[in-house]
Amino acid sequence: MVETNTQGLTAKEYKTDVHPVWCPGCGDFGVLTCIYRMLATKQINPDNLVVVAGIGCSGRLSGYVKSYGFHTVHGRVLPVATGVKTANPNLEVLAVGGDGDAYSIGAGHIPHAARRNIDVCYIVMDNEVYGLTKGQGSATAPQEFSTGTTPYGQMDEPLNPVAMAIAYDIGFVARGFSAKPKELTDLIIQGVEHKGFALVEVLSPCTTFHDIYKPISQRVRFIGPEHDPTDRLKAFQLALERETIPLGVIYKRERTAFHERARKIQEDSIQKRGKASVDEILSQFQ
Fold first, then answer.
1. Contact yes or no for 61/105 (Cβ under 8 A)
2. Dihedral, CA atoms, 153, 96, 32, 65, nearest 10 degrees?
3. Beta partners for 70?
4. What angle do CA 185, 191, 195 make, to 5 degrees?
5. What pLDDT is stored for residue 7 in this prediction?
6. Integer angstrom CA distances of residue 245 from 39, 186, 263
7. Apex CA 194: angle with CA 190 and CA 198, to 5°?
8. How far apart are CA 247 and CA 95, in angstroms?
9. Where in the chain is the domain with CATH 3.40.50.970?
10. What average pLDDT score do residues 10-23 get?
11. 164, 202, 232, 256: which has the fewest Cβ within 10 Å?
């Protein structure tokens, strides 16, 4: 169980002295605010919080939260988060990254985090563009998106992160929008509370290179109470919608987390073979 803080910390008190350097209007500001609100709502002790961030504009986020932070190399958010949570399951581990970090160079780690069911909430800020390297299209960019490096549009079809997450059977899959902070905060809270791997896909527009606030605002809709998130087929149907962009909890499945299985194996091993010191183990190989 994660140790919570009993001092009544406010969202403001989870901020560091490092000021965000994102462009004015960047969706990541909204996501950061929602993270502050989640931390204050759950009263998580900063001493028991680790924020693991990737590379890119969103990767700066670990420096803006009062916690232990790890700014990883490109695409390696999930392996580092897995190691931290496995080494100390009592920590609250929050993984953050962008669509380039998560769905391009880091995409190969998602299915393994899913099958292990690591107890980590992964917040992915998706703006369909590489903002830090001046506006190239990412793995989620639409084919009609024209940039300086692809003046005739994107060669590849975009990935569907939510459908991909459901296919990998990630235990908690949700989609939020940075311009809907109240609802996004609730989704992040649910993702953190989920016992296992949670993916919160956040539409977080880049106002400098790919400002899609208006078209997104015209297409988003909130999922109604009639949706059963445990119904995987219905979840796929929502993920594959084209006319609208459903927001909310899309898929949910409860199962044993990775660190719990690891602890069970350790306990079974000790019961079967007894507890040995490091010297005793090494002596077997001399």
1. no
2. -140
3. 52
4. 150
5. 63
6. 27, 18, 40
7. 85
8. 20
9. 11-255
10. 95
11. 256
φ and ψ at residue 70, rounded to 5 degrees: -140, 110
**Residue 264 to residue 270: CA distance in whole angstroms:** 10
d(CA 153, CA 169): 32
Q: Are 207 and 181 in contact (CB under 8 A)?
A: no
Q: What is the pLDDT of residues 210-266, one digit of tens each?
A: 999 999 999 999 999 999 999 999 999 999 999 999 999 999 999 999 999 988 888
Domain 11-255: which topology? Rossmann fold (3.40.50)
Residues 253 and 230: their CA atoms lie apart, in Å, by: 6
Neighbours of 106 (CB within 10 A): 26
Residue type, 49: L
How far is 172 from 204, CA to CA, in rounded Å?
Answer: 20
Residue 21 backbone phi and psi in degrees, to 5: -110, 20
Residue type, 214: K
Residue 138 contacts residue 100 (beta carbons within 8 Å): yes
**Which residues, at least 6 apart from 133, have a Cβ–Cβ distance to it below 8 Å?**
none
H helix runs in 102-208, sequence order = 110-116, 161-167, 181-193
pLDDT of residue 194: 98
Query: Would you state the structure tokens that stand for residue 123, as one six-digit string?
Result: 């917040």
What 8-state DSSP symbol labels residue 237? H
Residue 102 has pLDDT above 90, yes or no: yes
Q: Are strands 92-98 and 49-53 parallel, antiparallel or unpaired?
A: parallel
C-beta neighbour count of 251 within 10 angstroms: 26
Question: What's residue 266's pLDDT?
Answer: 83
Contact between residue 218 and residue 205 where contact means Cβ atoms under 8 Å apart? no
> Which positions ≥6 away from 59 have C-beta within 8 Å?
53, 71, 96, 97, 98, 101
Is residue 2 predicted with pLDDT exceeding 50? no
